[in-house]
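Reply to dn_fold:

You asked what the input looked like. This is it:
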Amino acid sequence: MRLQADIIIPVLLLCGGLLGLVLPGPAAAQPAGDVSATTESSCSFGMAKNQTKGGCDVPMLAGCVVARFPGTNRPWSNISKGGATSCRFDEKATDWKTKITGACGTCKTPQCSARFGVMFDCSASMPPPVSQQPPHRSKP
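and this is what came back:
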């Protein structure tokens, strides 16, 4: 039994060391300058079978700009749909500054639905953060 422990422990230590070389370490924190507070605006609609088109405009948020997907220059947006239809942001009707329009083609199932979401960066119009909260006063 002692011989097995003398062999097993070094083998386990070696395996653990090799795993440490292969597995990634803790994730590095993102630089604070690349991150801003965001909020989402969206529009959605439903369609019946054989309806040829559907669409909606994502409401623009006053004082905000469309956020960019982190690490890219692409607008931070998403499309969720249900049913057999194809959906996209309408390139002709969307300028990403004053108007954002989502559009879907013919609904081929009994019902279809779509949701168009866009993330906005409103940090330019927000007041600066409060550096410290006032002390909490307990009631007598």
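The helical segments are 2-22.
Hope that clears it up.
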